[in-house]
Amino acid sequence: MTLADACWPEVPEGGLVLVPIGSTEQHGPHLPLDVDTVVAVAVARGLAPALGGLVAPAVAFGASGEHQDFPGTVSIGTPALTTVLVELGRSLTTWAGRVVLVNGHGGNHEAVSASVRQLQAEGRDVAWVPCAPDPCCGAGLDAHAGRVETSVMLHLDPARVRLDLAEAGVTHPLAEVLPVLRAEGVREVAPNGVLGDPHGATSDEGARLLDQMVARALQRLGAGMRS
Ligand SMILES: [Zn+2]
């Protein structure tokens, strides 16, 4: 059951709530703007049965300043997102025993980890996990709208993937492009918005990658890593 579907008497006092944290940002010419939100929701739903938790409505706007040069991107930035997440955590923990933020966008990292630290310092049981598959050996840059995200979307929502428009972006090692990316934004290093190459993406690979994301998140939660 999701939190949005529940009537209040059905919500268990002291239970666990998973909150997907996504973004609304460009994902190349072939993927929709809500990829990170879709992935975060899918990972949260994958975790819910194992953890016995409810999945809350997703936070669909994040810190996406590096993508702001592309039309469609909507970013609230790190300070505002941090405030939102702290207040969500405070409100949720008035009745939830534990809150897990499931982060689908790397650019949210600073806000997610800072808000979790703050909430933990206030004595609340709050943790976070990324949506990260197993590290893949030999693969080139695949940071954004590349093979991983395209595969996962082909698995989750194939009707919204425009494979005919998929094309490679910048594939140099991330360390090489990161300084310009940070200073000038993604458009400066990858005019089509893709950091990686969606070529070879398949639905089967997406299913495997999603399983890995859920398994790694479970492992991380089991290991008690919270910040
Ligand atoms: Zn993404």
Automatic annotation (TrEMBL):
Cofactor needs: Zn(2+)
Keyword annotations of the record: Hydrolase, Metal-binding, Zinc
Pfam families reported for this sequence: Creatininase (PF02633)
Coiled-coil segments on the chain, per record: none
Origin: domain of life: Bacteria
Keyword Zinc found: yes
Family the UniProt entry places it in: Belongs to the creatininase superfamily.
Name assigned to this protein: Mycofactocin biosynthesis peptidyl-dipeptidase MftE
Organism: Janibacter terrae
